[in-house]
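Bench log, entry 3. Co-assembly request; chain sequences pasted below exactly as received.
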Amino acid sequence: MIRKTNIIILIIVLGASFILTLWSDNLRLPVWMPSWVPGQTEPAVAGRTAAPDVKMVDMNGETIELSDYRGKVIAINFWASWCAPCVVEFPDLIDLAEDKQDMLQMIFVSNDFKLENIDRFVSRLSDEHQDYLKNGANIDMILDKDMYITSKVFGTFNLPETYFIDTSGHTCKKIVGVLDFSAENIADIMSACQPQKKP
Amino acid sequence: MDSAQPKTRNIGNQWINWMSSPKLVFWALPYLMFILVIGTLAQKWIGLHAALDIYFYSWVLWIGVVPLPGGLPVMAVIFINMCAKFLWFSPWTKTKIGSNIVHLGVIILIAGGIVSALTRSDTVMVVPEGASVSHSQSYDMADFVIARDDDVIARYPYEIINEGDLLQNVDLPFAVRVLQTCLHCDIILRPEAEQEGWIGPSASMKLIDKAPSAKPEENLQGISFAIEMDGKRQAKNLTFESFPKPPQFKLQDSTYTLYVLRRPHDLPFTLTLSDFRKIDYPGLRKAQAYESDIVITHGERSFPESIYMNNPLRYEGYTLYQSSFFTDHNGTENSVFTVVENKGRMFPYVSCVIIFIGLLLHVFIRIGRSGERYAQKKTPRGASIFIVALLCGLIAQGIFAPSARASINDLKPPAQAFDVGDSYFALFPILHDGRIKTMDSFARYHLQRFSGKEKIEHNDEVLTAPEWMADVIFAPDSASDINVFLIDNHDVLHMLGLRAEKGKRLFSYNDIREGLLKTAPRVDTLLKSLRADSANKPQEDGELLLALHEHALIYLQLTQSLSALTPLNNTISTETLQLYFSDETLKRGFITYMDLKSAISRIEKDVQSIMREHGGDLKLFSAREAELYALSMRFASLNDVAAPNNILRVFPVSAEILDESVRLELLFAPWATIRNGYIDSSNMKFLDKWISLNIAYNLELQNTFSRLSYTLYEHSIEHIAERSGMETSALHNKLRFENAYNKAAPFYKALYLVIIAAIIFIVITIADSTKGYSAQPRKNRHNLVQKVLLGAGFSAVIIAIVLMLAGTGVRVWIMDRPPVGTLYESVLFVALVLLGCLTVLTIRTKQYGVMAAGLIVCALMLLQAVVLGHAQDDFKVLDAVLNTNFWLATHVLFVTIGYGWCFLTAAAAHWFLLQACLFRDKSATILRYGSPEIRLITMNALIAFFFVTVGTILGGIWADQSWGRFWGWDPKENGALLIVLWIAWLLHGKISRDIKPLFYVAFMAFLSVIVAVAWFGVNLLSIGLHSYGFTSETAISLGSFAAAEIIIIGAMAIYLQYRDRKAASL
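Structure output for the full assembly:
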């Protein structure tokens, strides 16, 4: 004899399964953000590394320290007259310095062995560039023939490299190779080099 | 009353009785298992889809010319049987409630399969980043489309076009003759002889049909055709799906394009892919996760969502799963979604809950009903003494090396002269295989890989893995004399020009260096052949030679990993050096590659002048000029050979100077750091300290080495903690415990203890057996010696359990996930479950024979783990689809517990068969339904059945979450189902009494083979979505195990059967 209870149970369970399918098909789950994916490490919101406040002597004989330029973004470009990409980007860096006079301090650190090599290279620049290089208030030229500042202090072994230091004296960006001078990239860099807010 | 009525009722009742009889399922299940096995094996040769059509989803299965029922009628019979049983013969009594609920669950499961088969549709959606798509495409249905000036004017479904058809349309000024269609095409070069009449790309390529791919979206639909006008053939061409340049021609000022499209299915909403991300494990080209950020637009509404592995989106009756991705020829990332509609989707979920409840109730009711009273759970006194004694010994010795317990501020002096292993060098964090591990783990991995050992002998000394690694990276010249390369194949030795010496299996790099050069051309040939077709596997000696070359290459990379920081041989005069290097550099007394790099432009300029001056003739160089030349050559050599090195990833790099693509990576190799310009003021000091560490090692300055190791370790930990957001102490503890785990090798120790315990219990069992058979444990059956042995045996087992639990706990903590993500881990876990359940069972029942049998199985599993764990990292990161703690903790845990319990059941069955063989006059008592032995087997089989069944269904639910389908007849899934069906078959056979007790016990013993085949054997097929963990050693082990079991069980069963028949005839 067929068990009526069992028929009812079976129909109920089958029906419930079907209804559950229809209900869950229209159930929108909350948005899961990908940041919880196990194992993924986001860079911690930690403090930036303080840039070394090294003393440098420019080609005019004046001693400068990075802390002299607090409040400005500092760009330290490591270059040499025998380095072809360095030579190519050099005028653009002067233009950048001129364009951002109020907010950027440009420091050129040359790895040339002799001052004459630098002089010879500079003499080939346009008059405007030569003029700004000589008279621009936000440009310093350093000769690092021992490569002490280049390799021992800043760890630069590939030329050109450009360090960007934020307004509070911390490293905010390091560009290995030629800088992308597009307006968007420069704006990104300048924005990234504003002081970090504490979380 | 009409006389026909009672007859009808009787016939009706007979039918109902027959349809609901357990006999029906008893005879249907083995046939279903037969289809399961042959259908799974067939997938290896004919592919999944063909196997589905021929075996699982067919009504008739043709074996040659013999028609047999296919999978569908068998499953239909089982479904009808379940329904009939449930509706007519399932009263809700205490003893039946559990099985009734289980049967209900099975009915729901199969009903869900029927609803899915009738309502399911699977389509695929390919969305480029930034694009919006509002339709999906069929996986396997395509249309041949003809467009005029981008407007579709004719669409022909593949189902209706055949070879030879002439497709005409009133809007078309031409006709198309179909030459060939294929739903899964391969494109090959068209032979020259066949090129006539073919135009465009079709002149050089041809479509051929091939077997369907296991992934439907990989199947390529194509068509070859001829254009005809006024009955004359104009040209032949072909087109296929996603053809970048489909055939086009101009006619009467219109441009006609012919292409193949997968059949589109319109969706009620639009999906826009905002961003697709593939997140690799750091430093590894292995996906940790795939994620798609999308926006759904439905009419006026628009909302963002994220879809990724194990997290589909359900909307408007559609479920969208992250299926895969690719980068197209424009460099744009495309996310691939599976779009599923299935009105039967929730049935397996409901079924899982019902079966879980039903089996749980059934098991508990059976346990409650069990009338046996075994000896109380008392640990024998001898065991207590041993446990205390051994624990004291362990505490005294320390399970983990003392140095591993050193806190970060507590430097312990090394135990012996220049003990690298006890310094912080062994704890150095290094990024390898997608995770941060200790230098000790890194060293062990490579040493095992090369030599098969964790320690190596050299000059009468035993070197630990970190000691060997220190030699390799700091003193590569002397390390090249250490015998680390395992070569035990005579053919390979001969190819390398080495003599086979008795007992010598390990060779140094210096021994094999020339042989490697000699065999390099052969290796090139082998590699080219493999690249051309991965099926071109070399012979065994070729494979071994390839492996040796690979190991040698890795070894060389290790030796070169610190060459940028190693003092270069300084034969240059001070005067020359002063010209190129600063006083600061010269003060140190040596120069490194990095110093050289700073000065190389000047050096190379001078060398060029010298070369010009002397016309390139080196004999004319002065001493100083020769030095300069050698220096520049050395630099060039390091640049070319060592610079690509990326193996020793120990250097921390600040996040702000990293490129976006590597921002998540925490540590870098020295060469990569220099090459990519990742050095800055913050890690310059780190670099200098590594130089000093190198020097300290080579000059054997123990204290300096220890101090520098500590400083570097501390610096690395702080950097990693800062970048990853972990606490420094937590990270330190993880590394410390990983180191301690490596040294303690808890599973190795557990293996020895299990072997000792197995021997002890075998001895006890033999001693018990000499006293004759007893269904119940006798009081005072052991003398003092036996009691002490028993105590020792239990002690060994309990300590083994403690070790395995500790080892498992450490693994869980280190990997932050359940300990069942890899085959290696699952073997260890199953062994642990088996050991635990066996111990509890034996304490309760005093069945020491079962204990002995179970311990043998456990020892074999731990041994297999040692083999599997050989030459690979224990702590492997998981594939993206496995990277989910929830499903690992549910499905995999349930299944592995089930496997462990299956082995326990099989062990008990083995012992009882052996008892029946030994105690001639008692075999009838043992081998009868209702005997304590068979009740014990049945009880454990039920528990195993619970775990395996629920685990298998959970696996299906996981598959539904990940891949959009509950069941795909994948070999791994079929293997799990085989275990479920095997136990179900035996249990039903017992109920219906269709199986004799002897065969019931024998087939329960055979459960061990079923589980081994389902667990390891399916991997040997190397097909399906679950292929992992295969090694050739596994195949040999499995084969040997299965053969041994068949012989042992078969011999006992045949013997007992023969003896019964003989007794019956007398």
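DSSP finds six helices and seven strands in chain A. Residues 4-25 of chain A form the longest helix (22 residues).
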